[in-house]
Amino acid sequence: MTTFTAPKGIPEYFPPNSAAFLAVRDALTDAARRAGYGYVELPLFEDTTLFARGVGESTDVVSKEMYTFADRGGRSVTLRPEGTAGVIRSVIENGLDRGQLPVKLYYHGAFFRYERPQAGRYRQLQQVGVEAIGVDDPALDAEVIAIADEGYRRLGLTGHRVDLSSLGDDTCRPQYRERLLAFLRSLSLDEDTRERAEINPMRVLDDKRPEVRELVADAPLMVDHLTDSAREHYESVKQHLRDLGVAFNENPRLVRGLDYYTKTTFEFVHDELGSQSGIGGGGRYDGLMAELGGQELSGVGFGLGVDRTLLACRAEGLDVGSAARCDLYGVPLGDAAKRRLVREAGALRAAGVRVDLAYGGKGLKGAMKAADRSGARFALVLGERDLEAGEAQLKDLSTGEQRSMPLDGLVDEVLSAVAKA
Ligand code: HAM
Question: Is Protein biosynthesis included in the keywords of this UniProt record (predicted)?
Fold first, then answer.
């Protein structure tokens, strides 16, 4: 018989650990909702050109990592490697940019990158993202960063920091690029690195090899060559972050893997995750909307890695998300008791209590074991004799206390026990 395995490099989440996955995703999306962002549900695949143009042909994401295929109509489509290009496409297509600005949107879901799988680096990754479109206000950049920080904090994370930099605007960046390229051309770099420098000189600043690091130690930095307006923007973002109480680390060598960034860029880093330490990142992308055929509107946003944030929580020993599948586990002993408990389970669920039952005619011992494993706080045992007496036994599985309660009015009794628990 053939057995099947999941595609390589894709994390799967199932109970009990999937509860922690959901808790991480929900903490990050809650932070976005509290700042007035509205949910968007977008396609998992788009026209390939959207990403090539939006993210940039020269990036690794586009040139090496996209899942691209021809659909049955012969169109080239790509599984989304990131969320920003799709959001901007949708905003333009649906005319959201003609309403009140900024348009504030959040999303969560799967993204696809054909990377070499390793711990924390997956081919299907999960992100929570926000995009604020249409207002070029440094307070909005600070808001976006503060939302991410707040989301991480709610989970109890303390070991993260945010690296911050400015990539300049469309006046100072091209000038800086030439300056940096001239500097890099004057160095004795290997052939490969030279070629990379010609395509994107900023990436060489991020090279991890010690010999290259040494060579580029005196390279000119973007933050020293900002136009007055880009500098004012950057200073203002930092001031707002201080006002918000969000600590940041200025890192003038911060390089992001996507081409659309302008001015503010940032990356959340967690030091206990080894080489895949980026738990989230983002920045401003003022030219993207026009590049994708829309108005000249600015934007700023982030993408937070849910998988990596979960790994960070584990690394810090945080117990996030309750793994309990239900509040109450019903244990019927005998057919008549089972019929009654099935009925009571329906009524309890309708009243909002999470209920599971021992199915398959388990004996008392096996059923109590299953009750423990379900994570329920209470077991409700109903035997033939209880049924005749018109009562059931409610056992608190955390204290071992047991008491009987009348079957008539069971829903109210259980509701109050669960509320007190
Ligand atoms: P990104 O930095 O490419 O930005 O991805 C955001 C986050 O997704 C990363 O910090 C990381 O936590 C997670 N991530 C990326 N690739 C992988 C992978 N292979 N395995 C596991 N996690 C991964 C963006 O995607 C931008 N769209 C963010 C943005 C929104 N910028 C502005 N708005």
Answer: yes
Q: Which of 382, 329, 333 is nearest to 353 (CA)?
A: 329
Q: At a CB cut-off of 8 Å and minimum separation 6, what does 317 contact?
A: none
CB within 8 A of 69, min separation 6: which ones? 76, 77, 78
Pocket test for ligand 1, best of 87, 162, 258, 265 (most atoms within 8 A of CB): 258
Q: Which atom of ligand 1 is nearest to the CA of 268?
A: 10
Q: Is there an atom of ligand 1 within 6 Å of 91 CB?
A: no
**Per-residue confidence (pLDDT) for residue 200, from 0 to 100:** 87
151 lines ligand 1 (CB under 6 A): no
**234: annotated binding-site residue?**
no
CA of 52 to the centre of ligand 1 (A): 17
The alpha carbon of 256 and the centre of ligand 1 are apart by a number of angstroms equal to 10
285 assigned to a ligand binding site: no
Q: The pTM is what?
A: 0.95
How far, in Å, is the centroid of ligand 1 from the Cα of 206?
17
Q: Which of 52, 40, 146 is nearest to 94 (CA)?
A: 40
Ligand 1 atom nearest the C-alpha of 309 is 12
What's the average pLDDT block by block, 10 residues per block, for the chain (421 residues)?
A: 94 94 98 98 98 93 97 98 98 97 98 97 98 98 98 97 97 95 94 91 89 94 97 98 98 92 98 95 97 97 98 96 93 97 97 97 94 96 96 97 96 95 89
- Token pair belonging to 179: 């300056």
Q: Report yes or no: 8 and 67 within 8 Å, Cβ to Cβ.
A: no
Structure confidence at residue 58 (pLDDT): 86
Domains of the chain: 18-172+226-315 (3.30.930.10), 328-420 (3.40.50.800)
**Ligand 1 proximity of 125 Cβ (cutoff 6 Å):** yes
Q: What is the dihedral of CA 15, 16, 22, 24, to 10 degrees?
A: -150
Question: Residue 308, annotated ligand binder?
Answer: no
Find the radius of gyration of the CA atoms of the chain: 27
Phi-psi region of 116 (alpha: psi -120 to 50; beta: other; left: phi over 0): beta
- Structure tokens that stand for 404 in this block: 């009987």
Q: Whose CA is nearest to atom 15 of ligand 1?
A: 305
